[in-house]
Design brief:
single chain, globular, 10 helices, alpha+beta, two-stranded antiparallel sheet, three-stranded antiparallel beta sheet
């Protein structure tokens, strides 16, 4: 009975083994080309990840050294200084170098610090697992007693554990970390302040969130277009070669280049004189 197929009859007419045909030269060349393309694609993805990680670290270093509120509010007179607590501390520090900027606008700006502090508090209620009191009851239920997924970000500052000085990798497992007693975060409050300022100023536009969703999907995590912001921040994703979260990606998107080549902060042109400010990097 002929069942078809390409089976060679053995001694006595029994079928023992399939006949194998060597690949044609064209098929061999095609297979080698596919392999080379795959290797090249993997190498390019690795380079992109390393580039993004270095850029991310440069942004963390930059905003650790600069007061975001003063940087954005008083570009004409800004001098490099760490995050200050408001108008009085700013003036006492001797930063009023532009005579047109007097105490009156500085005092008015105190509301900016209050707004940033309030938004930072909201962000930390998310990342530290306490839910977000200003969101819907349904969302609160999903976020209750829940912060970042394990080892996707420091629960104090949000930065990936591999980049935060508060954590040390376990010797027997490169993906696990332990908190080191008496050490502090390398970039305390940096991401929360940037996101807090952006939220308070209405800069976290839909297109920023849409770009964050696009990046997360490229990393292999499906996410809905209309995902609530708290859930977006908490998403675990392997990005830039490290275990990270949505908050990191939203922070990463803060820096951009405008059509005229001007650096931007969530789309707002940065007007600070680069000769008086340490560059990003």
């Amino acid at each position: 009975m002929d069942l078809g197929g390409d089976i060679a009859p053995g001694p006595g007419g029994s079928s023992l083994a399939p006949r194998t045909q060597p690949p044609s030269p064209a098929a061999a060349v095609a297979a080698m080309a596919d392999m080379a393309w795959g290797v090249g694609e993997a190498a390019e993805q690795s380079r992109d990840a390393e580039r993004d990680k270095e850029r991310f670290k440069a942004m963390l270093r930059f905003w650790k050294k600069h007061c975001l509120v003063c940087f954005m509010t008083y570009p004409a007179s800004y001098q490099t200084h760490w995050y200050c607590s408001g108008a009085k501390a700013h003036a006492v520090a001797g930063q009023l170098v532009d005579p047109t900027e007097t105490w009156e606008p500085m005092i008015d700006a105190a509301g900016v610090w209050d707004t940033v502090r309030a938004k930072v508090k909201e962000i930390y209620t998310i990342v530290r697992g306490k839910g977000w009191q200003h969101h819907t009851r349904e969302t609160q239920g999903r976020l209750a007693a829940r912060g970042f997924a394990r080892f996707s970000g420091c629960h104090y500052c949000g930065v990936p554990q591999g980049l935060c000085g508060r954590w040390r990798a376990q010797a027997d497992d490169g993906g696990s970390y332990d908190v080191v007693p008496h050490l502090t975060c390398s970039y305390p409050d940096v991401m929360a302040r940037c996101l807090g300022y952006a939220l308070g100023a209405g800069l976290l536009a839909d297109k920023v969130r849409a770009e964050a969703v696009r990046i997360i999907r490229q990393c292999g995590v499906w996410v809905a277009d209309d995902i609530p912001l708290p859930e977006l921040m908490l998403l675990r994703v392997r990005w830039a070669g490290v275990e990270a979260n949505g908050l990191c990606i939203l922070f990463f998107l803060s820096h951009g280049i405008g059509p005229d080549g001007t650096q931007t902060f969530y789309g707002v042109p940065v007007r600070v004189d680069p000769l008086r400010v340490q560059p990003l990097g």
